[in-house]
């Protein structure tokens, strides 16, 4: 009894130890994932910041177009699959955290671009712009990112402060803000930072092509290897068969042949003799017969046409009736005429003739 109790206790101890080990592994994995999410130093980040002040109201459509084209092209091919894309908006207040973070890949780039454009279509362009509201939060993001690209679309009416390039950016805004306002186009300012420090900038006047500032040499990524497409299989056409008839070879074209067709040599033999055995060989005879027998002319006999007597059309019934009635009327007329003529010749009455006979 004691031995059975000890066996049960030992098994319970082994199960408890295994459960504690699994729980420790799960907690360790969760802690690692949380640390990775809070430390995005291993990610390339793209942050799009759009000014939604009243001054940008007439430029809203062009802003949407620029964002869509820029993200669908992957910053002109600079982005890599796995980069993350975020978006902020601001006027006199910063609105961050309203747009969900997107994972950019070559397969999802169109979907990411459409999602960002749809988000911008829902924004209200109102109030004045205060770019200073974005820099405190942006500085914290830059400090926690190994590589980050900030794309700022603004009216240029307010100066940017907080970067090593404030004076150069303000000078570009001052020289071109009138032209951009008349064209209803925004300024596209691009800032790049590496290991928590801004390393380069560019101010682009849309709709001109966007130029990206370079990262330091140690921060540049190797270009992605080109996708090698397999070469298409080369299909060699089948050899055309050679048919030799008489003295001249005739090549037959457009005949599908699965295997090489041997050459057929047909010699000219007078039709009075029996046909010789057909000789098949893979080589053309070195000598060909010099005489050429013309085939007998074929006389074409035209058939003699058989004369066909024209059929008399039968008389219609109406014609027969008319002729019969006319004939009957003619007979009646003749009969009446004969009757009258007979009466005239015998004009004396029976009494007159009797008296004349008595007088005699």
Task: State the order of secondary-structure elements, H for helix, E for strand.
Answer: HEHHEEEHHEHEEEEEEHH
Overall CATH architecture of the domain at 40-218: 3-Layer(aba) Sandwich
Uncertain stretches: 17-41, 263-267, 273-287
Helix content: 25-40%
* Assembly classification: single chain
The total count of helices amounts to 8
Q: Assign the CATH topology of the domain at 40-218.
A: Rossmann fold
Highest-level CATH class of the domain at 40-218: Alpha Beta
Structural class: alpha/beta
Rg calc: 57 Å
Amino- and carboxy-terminal Cα gap: 196 Å
The count of strands amounts to 11
Shape: elongated
> Largest sheet, if any?
7 strands, mixed
Instruction: Quote the average pLDDT.
Output: 76
Structure write-up:
This protein is an alpha/beta fold. Among the domains are: 40-218, Rossmann fold; 235-269, no CATH class. It is 38% helix and 17% strand. It is built from eight helices and eleven strands. The chain has helices at residues 2-38, 60-72, 74-77, 109-121, 132-143, 166-182, 317-345, 350-359; strands at residues 44-51, 83-90, 94-95, 102-104, 147-154, 187-194, 197-205, 242-245, 248-251, 263-266, 279-281. Strands 1, 2, 3, 4, 5, 6 and 7 form a seven-stranded mixed beta sheet that branches. It has a four-stranded mixed beta sheet with strand order 9-8-10-11, with no helix packed on it. Helix 2 packs antiparallel against helix 4. The longest helix is centred in the first third of the chain and has 37 residues, at 2-38. The model is unreliable at 17-41, 263-267 and 273-287 (pLDDT under 50).
